[in-house]
Amino acid sequence: MANSALLVMDVQQTIVDMVDGGAGILPRLRDAVDAARAAGIPVVYVAIEVRKGWAAASPRSKAIAFAVRTGIFDEGGPGLEIHPDIAPREGDVVVTKRRGSAFSGSDLELVLQSRDIDHLVLAGIATSGVVLHTACHANDRDLGLTILKDACLDLDPETHRFLVETMFPQWADVVSVEDWIASGPVTAY
């Protein structure tokens, strides 16, 4: 039986404000978080922050160059807290990443190893960003994967649809939050 963790990724105030646009992802995320906690599954929050300036960024990376130029994800900046509707509680883990994947520049791998976690349940913003990058990383690490398709969101609905219907099923079980909860999230889907 797999030891699972729910990763809630990049659901920070600024990102939700930019991307959600009324999509209503927060209630589904809250349902997933509540179900994981009730089942004793660790909830790991992943947040992006980058160092100010170019100290840890290359102008060759379009995404990081944009973040550095605009200061939108500057370390310690405003709006980078986890959205209050799904805020971490005592006992939850929060890791800070520096790039697209939840593994990049964070101590996520140590957190997973210390808890003997071998299956990840992924949710977050954006499907084509942190979800895709983390799924690739996890797949390369031979971790089991479940992706909560309606607890992920992307600026481009067609990109989201393509990823959850075509690409992700090659690597992961792709299910709705409701189906994941109904299946009993104590085990991998």
UniProtKB/TrEMBL annotation:
Q: Could you tell me which InterPro entries the record lists for this protein? A: Isochorismatase-like_dom, Isochorismatase-like_hydrls, Isochorismatase-like_sf
Q: Does the keyword Oxidoreductase apply?
A: no
> Isochorismatase-like domain: which residues?
4-179
Alphabetic keyword roster: Hydrolase
* Pfam families for this protein: Isochorismatase
Q: Organism's domain of life? A: Bacteria
Among the GO molecular function terms of this UniProt record, one is: hydrolase activity
**Could you tell me what this protein is called?**
Cysteine hydrolase family protein
Biological classification of the source: Bacteria, Bacillati, Actinomycetota, Actinomycetes, Streptosporangiales
